[in-house]
From TrEMBL, chain B:
GO cellular component: plasma membrane
Subcellular localization: Cell membrane
Protein origin, superkingdom: Bacteria
Entry-linked InterPro entries: ABC_transp_permease, LivM-like
Claim: Transmembrane is one of the keywords in the record: yes
UniProt topology in membrane: Multi-pass membrane protein
Segments traversing the membrane: 14-31, 38-59, 65-85, 92-110, 152-173, 205-224, 236-253, 260-279, 291-309
Name of the protein: Branched-chain amino acid ABC transporter permease
Pfam families, A to Z: BPD_transp_2
GO terms of molecular function: branched-chain amino acid transmembrane transporter activity
Alphabetic keyword roster: Cell membrane, Membrane, Transmembrane, Transmembrane helix
Organism: Streptomyces sporangiiformans
Keyword Transmembrane helix attached: yes
Amino acid sequence: MPTDNFPNDHLSSGAARKDVSAAGDTSQPRVPDPGAGENKSMHECRTALQLVPHEAGAAKPDPIVVVNGIRRTFGGLTAVDVEHLEIQRGVITALIGPNGAGKTTFFNLLTGFDQPDAGSWSFDGAPLKGKAAYKVARLGMVRTFQLTRVLSKLTVLENMRMGATGQRGERLWAAALPALWRAQERDITDRARDLLKRFKLDAKEADFAGSLSGGQRKLLEMARALMVEPKLVMLDEPMAGVNPALKQSLLGHVKSLRDQGMSVLFVEHDMDMVREISDWVVVMAQGKVIAEGPPTSIMSDERVIDAYLGARHDTDISELERVIQVEHTHDHAEQRADREVPR
Amino acid sequence: MDIIGALTGALHDGFGYLAVSFCLAAIGLNIQFGYAGLVNFGQAAFLSVGGYVMGAAIATSGVPTVLAILLAIAFTVALALILGIPTLRLRADYLAIVTIAAAEILRLVFGTSFRTYFHGKDGVTGFTAGFRSLNPLPNYDGFFLTYSREELWTVMVGWGLVIMISLLTWALMRSPWGRVLRGIREDEDAMRSLGKNVYGYKIQALILGGVVGCVGGFVGAFGAASVQADTFNLDFTFIALTMLILGGAARVLGPVVGAVMFWAILSFLGSVLTQLASYPVVAQFMNADQASTIRLMLVGLVLMLLMIYRPQGIFGDRREIALDAH
Ligand SMILES: Nc1ncnc2c1ncn2[C@@H]1O[C@H](COP(=O)(O)OP(=O)(O)OP(=O)(O)O)[C@@H](O)[C@H]1O
Ligand SMILES: [Mg+2]
C-alpha cells in the first residue's frame, strides 16, 4: 500500500509544492471517480491552504462544508456555538479540543443526529438543515461514532456489506428474488473483503461483530463507513484503543483516502496523529472554534495551550501532549453511552 | 390411564387450526420482534381485524370470500400504519404501549359495538360456506387422522399457508432487506449513519408481520366457524410471544416449532392431569378444576427450565445469547 507519498511539512516549505504534484501523478490511477474538476483541484486544495489566514472562521478556497452560526444548548450549557467554519475539500482536517469541548456534539449536529437551536450549514453546496441523518449519509457525508456502534449479532462481513448504498436487494419487492441482486451482492462482498484485508480484519470476517475487541470495533466501524463511498468521512477518535503498530498503517490508510480524493475530518486526542497526517487543524474549546491553522503553527498557539492547560503559559508542546493524554485516558471512561446521540 | 389417547390428543391439538392460527401470529411477531426488534404487544389486534372484517363482510354483506379476505388485509395494513406512523420514530417502548392499548380497544369495540356487524358477545358466524365449498376432500363420516372433514380442510389450508409464509420469510431474511432489518434491531443509529431509512423499514416490518397475523386470524375464524372478541385478549399475544421465544426468535422455524410444541404439551398435560384427577387418591389434593390450573403451572415450569438451560430457544444460536452477556 503506497502511503507516504506526501511530506508532512509540505505546508511550510515552498519546495514541497513540487513533491506534492509529483506524488499526485503517481496516485492518479487510484482516484475512483476521476471527474476532471476533482482531479485538478485535489492537490491544489491542499497547497491553497497555504494562503488561508491562520484564524478561526477563515474562508477556504474550496470548502466542502460551510457552517454558519450553529448553536446547541443542553439546559443552561452551551455545548456548541460556532460562528463560522469552513472545511476544505480534499484535505485532512483535524478537530481537536479538550474533553467536553463540543466536538462530538458538533459531529452529531452536522450529520443530522442532533438538531441545533440555531444556525445553518451546507455540505457540497446542499443545505443540510433539517435533513434526516440517513439522507445526509447518502449525500456522501458519513461519520463514525466515538463509542463504537457495531451490529453485534451480525458477522463482520455482514456489517461491511451493510455500508454499501443503492443495494437493489434492500427493497422489499426485490428481496425475495435473488436473481435481481445476486451480482451486485457479489461486487459488494468483494469490495468488503478488500477493505477488511486493509484493516487487518479479514481473518475475522465470519465472526460476530459483537465478539471483536474494542480496537477491532473501531477498525470495523471505520472500514464500514468507507463502504458507503463517502465524499467526506468524519471519524470521531478513530485511533482510541488501536495498538501503535496498527496505528501507523491506519495513518497511511487515512492518507490514501485523501489521495483518492476523499475529504477527511477527524476528532483526535493523539497529537502525534494530528501532527503526522492533518493538513489543517481546527481547535474547539467550550463549544467555540478558538483557532485554526496548519498543525505546526497550531501546536505553539497560545490560545490553544491556554485552552488545554489553563493559563500556564510557559509550557512547551510535549507538556501539552502529556496533559492531553492524561486527560483523555481519565475522562473517557466516564463518558456515558446515552450521551453520544441525544434523542 | 390412557396415555395413547393423551398423545393422539396432543398431536391433534399440536397440528390443529388453533395451533396454525397461533403459529401465524408468532411468525408475524418473529418478523417484527425477532428480526427487526419491534415490540408489538398487540398482535391479537391484527388477528381480530382479520377475522372480524372478513367474517362480517361475508356474513352481513354477502361479499365473496376472496374479496372479503383482501378487504381484511387492507384494514390490517391501515391498522399497522395507524399504529406505526406516530410511534416508530420514537423509542421502542412507545410501539409496545400503543399496540397493547389498540388490541384492548379493538377487542372492546368488536365485543360491544356495531352489533349489526359484530353481534356483540355472540360474535360473527355464518361466513364459512364459501370456504367450505372449496373443500376437495371426499365425503367421509367420522374422523380421519383425528380430524373431521371440515377440520381437516382448514388444517390443510392452514399448514399450506404456514409453509408458504415460512418460505417467504426465509427468502426475505437472507436477502439484503432482511439484513437491514437485523441491523436495525442491533443499532438504529449505526444504520442511519450508513444511509438506511430506518423508519421506512420499521413500517414495512410492522405491516408485513401484521398481515401474516391477519392470515392467522382467517385460519382461526374458518376453523372455529365463528369470530369472538374474547379470543383476542392480551393473553393471546403473550402466548404467541412465548411460542416464539420457545422455538427461537429470528429463526424461520422457531415460531412454527414453538407453536406446535406449546399446544402439544399443553394438550398432553391437560389430558394426563384430568385423568389423574379422576383417581380418588389424587382427587384429594387435585380436583378436575384445579387440574387445568396446575397444567398451566407446569407449562410455566417447563418454560422456566427452558430459559435457564436453553435461553436461545429450541432453534436459537447460543453464541448470540452469549453476546448479550457483555
Ligand atoms: N445529550 C446531552 N445532554 C446533556 N449534555 C450533553 C449532551 N451531550 C453532550 N453534552 C455536554 O456537552 C458538552 C460537549 O460534549 P461533547 O461530547 O460534544 O464533547 P467532546 O468535545 O466530544 O469531548 P470528548 O473529547 O471528551 O469526547 C459536554 O459538556 C457534555 O457534558
Ligand atoms: Mg467526543
